[in-house]
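Quick start: read one record
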Amino acid sequence: MTVVFFISKKLIFDLVDEVWEDGETLVVRNSGQEQRIALADIKNVSLRRPTVFGDEVTFCAPVRMVPLAPSPVINDPIERVDRAREQSHHRR
């Protein structure tokens, strides 16, 4: 039972309230706080720079009718994060 609690705590209980894209940033809202995170600052599932929510932001994509099929809601932002990161790297 303890294992279930810790897995649930990591995967479910730390979900933020809202996440959406706004141009080259993600807008994250949780418990009345809001922060914009540049797509270039996203590294895998962690952030390159800590935010008011820590160095990770956990959220759930909308439910799909075909759960194992690729999701444009997930794949498109991943591609945009990769492009933003590449552009940021080339500017340095």
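Residues 11 and 58 are 8 Å apart (CA to CA).
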